[in-house]
Design a protein that fits this description.
41% helix; five-stranded parallel sheet; 8 helices; elongated; four-stranded antiparallel sheet; alpha/beta
């Protein structure tokens, strides 16, 4: 499981740090968020293998956050971490799209077991996450594979991240800084030349009209009508 990336949404600083340190000791990469808005930004800036979401957090609560993400096509496995004990809350959690629901307080070992079990299940060969780009083109997020009428193309890691970012935010102007944050991880140095190369390749595959340059602002993805 080493190298798997987890989004951790937890507003209790002490518990957050405890969970993060334990998971990092197991080899996971943990991206932190302390409120719902921050988690929303992180969710679309990175490709995660698992979501750990507290429910009672500032701004957007965990239930609403995951429900909205599921409606936008995010299929990343998710576990709710919550002190809520009622069956109604349990039902609401699963209806919002959760794969598991862990009540506080919990043992870190139990959390690790649940994470490992869910990741093994989610990475079975049958699991796919495909987005229809229109005009006979489909993109497999897991395999970073683009299926077109002319054939199949497997994208590089950063090219795949860039395409996914565009697909998650159609019509929005994505600044260079936002794209850098999504594609390059510390201690990597962002490269404008590399970004232009990735843009050029995606335009070649999708059509120049699908990715528009906005002078001094960034790029905008135009979805197929």
């Amino acid at each position: 499981m080493n190298g798997r990336k987890i989004l951790l949404l937890e507003d209790d600083a002490s518990l957050h740090e405890t969970i993060r340190e334990d998971l990092e000791e197991q080899g996971y990469i943990v991206i932190s968020a302390y409120d719902g808005y921050e988690a929303q930004d992180r969710l679309y800036e990175h490709r995660f293998d698992l979501l750990l979401l507290d429910v009672n957090v500032p701004e957007v609560d965990g239930f609403a956050l995951l429900e909205a993400a599921r409606k936008e096509g995010v299929e990343t496995p998710a576990i709710f971490l919550t002190a809520r004990e009622s069956v109604d809350d349990l039902e609401k959690g699963f209806r919002s799209g959760a794969d598991d629901y862990l009540r506080k307080p919990f043992a870190l070992r139990e959390l690790r077991i649940r994470i490992e079990t869910l990741l093994k299940r989610s990475y079975s060969p049958q699991r796919t996450e495909t987005i229809d780009l229109g005009e006979g083109v489909h993109y497999d997020l897991k395999a970073q594979r683009l299926e077109t009428p002319k054939g199949t193309v497997t994208l590089g890691r950063k090219e795949g991240r860039l395409l996914e970012l565009f697909l998650r935010h159609p019509g929005e102007i994505l600044s260079h800084e936002r794209i850098y944050d999504a594609l390059w991880e510390y201690p990597e140095e962002p490269s404008d030349d590399s970004l232009r190369t990735y843009i050029k390749k995606l335009r070649k595959l999708l059509g120049k009209e699908r990715i528009v340059s906005i002078k001094k602002q960034g790029y905008r993805y135009v979805a197929s009508e």
